Amino acid sequence: MSLIDAQRRLPATFVPRSEDQRHWNIMLQKDQLAQIAMILLVWGLAGALFGALFAGLYQVLWILGLPGWQTLMIATAIAAVTTAAFYSAMPIALIGTMAGVLASIGYLMAAALKLNLIAIVGLAGAAGVVAGTLYAWMVTRGSRPLAEILNGLVAGLLTGALLVLTFALTGWQVNMIILAATAVAGVGTLFQLAEGWLVERAARWLPAMLSAPVVAGLIAAVVGASIWFVGGATAAVLDDRMTSAFGQILAHIPAGLLGGFMGGALSGLLLEFLGFRLDVGR
Questions:
Q1: From CA 129, how far away is CA 144, in angstroms rounded?
Q2: How far apart are CA 201 and CA 280, in angstroms?
Q3: Are 256 and 83 in contact (CB under 8 A)?
Q4: In whole angstroms, what is the distance from residue 39 CA to residue 45 CA?
Q5: How far apart are the first and last CA of the chain?
Q6: What's the whole-model pTM score?
Q7: What three-state secondary structure class fits 83?
Q8: What is the distance between the alpha carbons of residues 261 and 71, in angstroms, rounded to a whole number?
């Protein structure tokens, strides 16, 4: 229980002495500053993860020739699901990450330079499902992790749709920093607004035994795709066209990371000031 909560529970007749009151106020200020710093750090890092994934996915889908509105919505949704998993179900997300890394490295060792996106993503995803199944068998966590990434998916789709509608109606053109910051702020706000009712209701009917396998499998698949991208960038040094495409993608990731960090930190701080209790220690 924080000092702020402790103060709220004090009896109405409690009147501390002046020295005690001064000491109490100092402790409250330190507690509030620590809470603000934690919100800035956690939401900023979550936003940076979102922004980097969002920028990379956006450029990949754009190079593949998808329409602009599909590119924006798909990139926002996938980045939102991945970030929601790390923010709300860290142990399962880490298990999926490790499984995806091990499976992808094994694939790279076996396939050498013959990299296939579907194969590496499928293998990494399957390894994540197996690892998540073992985790669900050993540790009972219920269906809340799956409900959390469902909340992230809904927030990502809604944010992507709002951005598409806004750009279509106004004709605005923004750089990647502003686009990533706006997407992070929108997803974070909608995710927090739906936390109290969507997650609680979804957790009641979602199957608990599928929760950890699905979450770990999704994270492992994203890791596999990322390793394919890095491996492809390394293997494409002799192909000028592919080298140019990978360079274009990589050039936008720092901007997405910076914009995501700014959008996550500012939106988290604003939500806390508006009265939302952000559980940054989950």
A1: 17
A2: 22
A3: no
A4: 10
A5: 15
A6: 0.79
A7: helix
A8: 21
How far apart CA 266 and CA 256 sit, in angstroms, is: 15
Rounded Cα gap, residues 188 and 83, in angstroms: 10
Which token pair is 66? 């998808």
Q: Which tokens in the block code for residue 125?
A: 């995803």
Helices (H), 206-239: 208-235
Token representation of residue 13: 């007749």
183 close to 54: Cβ distance less than 8 angstroms: yes
- Which CB contacts under 8 angstroms, 24+ apart, belong to 197-201? 198/147, 198/150, 198/151, 198/154, 199/144, 199/147, 199/148, 199/150, 199/151, 200/147
CB 206 within 8 A of CB 146: yes
For 206-259, the pLDDT digits (tens) are: 888 888 899 999 999 999 988 887 766 555 444 566 667 677 777 888 899 999
- Secondary-structure percent of the chain, ordered helix, strand, coil, rounded to 5: 85, 0, 15
